[in-house]
Write a structure and sequence with these properties.
Rossmann fold; three-stranded parallel sheet; globular; 2 domains; alpha/beta
């Protein structure tokens, strides 16, 4: 959106998003109008989308870019009636666009942001995909900052203590590191650093995951150390963004929270199972630390994340907790900033 704004400084930029992700872009400084489009199923959902399409058409857009490429996004792009409609060359739906961009079916070793940037080039945006010029953005909501600070204080975090945020779930089960590994990670960090507290978070798809990790990590520690495994409840996306700003380190799998953390300057340790760091690593300036930990080369990796070919999720289960602890130690050592970006760890 920043690149589009720079290319078309006087344009009215409208962004369409489904409710779950709306907080990510709600405060984006480059967007003039945000349309939140709830999803419904069946005939009702189709009728809702047609009504939204009429609303979009009435706005007489000059340009519509479909960054998603799914059936609903393609339909809304077409219904918008925009004079120029840019999207991927997708079987059975490419006709909905006036300008089509090739999208190979194979999983390329190329960052997903660069893949989407191909659409910008087709739309007349000349800027190149630069991590430093155009990092991912999610401004912090001021009210979330105070609310998160209060919750952390009630959970026992002291001002002089370093906070490590560990996200222990993912909407996609193909990206969930085993909970026992998260238990070992949390206990190891607390045991090794007297000034470190660990806050565990989890998403709605696996809401009790954080609770289970907290209970088991505390059981593995003595009382004083166990008290530094914090239970602060669930966080909304806006609260999670504020929480990361208070942290000395964020650790999590390749899911939404990892990329929310990428909008900060906080060091990150990302865990990559079926995905590759070259495709999914945090998109931000390289001077900010981002360690990547994975299971190494596997014949089934990357995958489409529909069926585990070996059947044992080895791309996740073979990520050793000790390797993640080592990456966390390197990242913590570089806090509050560094001129280098962490290399992939195995």
């Amino acid at each position: 959106m920043h690149a589009i704004r720079r290319a078309f400084p006087s344009a009215h930029l409208t962004y369409i998003v489904e409710p779950a992700a709306a907080p990510v872009v709600a405060r984006n400084p480059h967007i003039d109008e945000l349309i939140v489009a709830p999803r419904s199923r069946g005939i009702r959902g189709f009728a809702t989308d047609v009504a939204l399409g009429r609303r979009l058409k009435a706005k007489s857009f000059d340009l519509a870019i479909d960054f998603h490429g799914g059936p609903r996004a393609s339909l809304l792009t077409w219904l918008s009636g925009a004079r120029v409609r840019v999207g991927y060359e997708i079987a059975a739906r490419a006709w909905m666009y006036t300008t089509r961009v090739a999208r190979p079916r194979e999983l390329r070793r190329r960052h997903s942001v660069e893949n989407q940037w191909d659409l910008l080039a087709a739309a007349g945006v000349a800027a190149l995909p630069s991590r430093s010029e155009f990092p991912v953005e999610m401004p912090v909501a001021p009210d979330a900052v105070s609310g998160v600070a209060d919750r952390l204080a009630r959970a026992g975090l002291l001002p002089m203590q370093r906070l490590v945020v560990v996200h222990v779930s993912a909407g996609n089960p193909f990206r969930r590191w085993p909970l026992e590994s998260f238990v070992s990670l949390a206990a190891s960090l607390v045991r090794a650093h007297a000034d470190v507290c660990v806050a565990l978070t989890s998403g709605p798809s696996d809401a009790d995951a954080a609770v289970r990790v907290i209970e088991q990590a505390r059981a593995a520690l003595d009382r004083d150390a166990g008290a530094r495994v914090l239970s602060a409840g669930e966080f909304s996306l806006a609260e999670l963004r504020a929480l990361v700003d208070r942290a000395a380190l964020f650790i999590g799998g390749d899911s939404g929270p990892l990329h929310i953390a990428a909008t900060s300057r906080v060091p990150i340790v990302g865990l990559y199972g079926p995905t590759l760091p070259v495709r999914s690593a945090p998109w931000r300036a390289e001077r900010f630390v981002a360690e990547a930990v994975d299971a190494g080369e596997l014949p089934c990796r990357p995958c489409e994340q529909r069926v585990c070919a070996p059947g044992d999720f080895r791309c996740l289960t073979r990520i050793d907790a000790a390797a993640v602890v080592a990456a966390a130690e390197r990242a913590l050592g570089d806090w509050p900033g560094s001129a280098r970006r962490g290399a992939t760890s195995r």
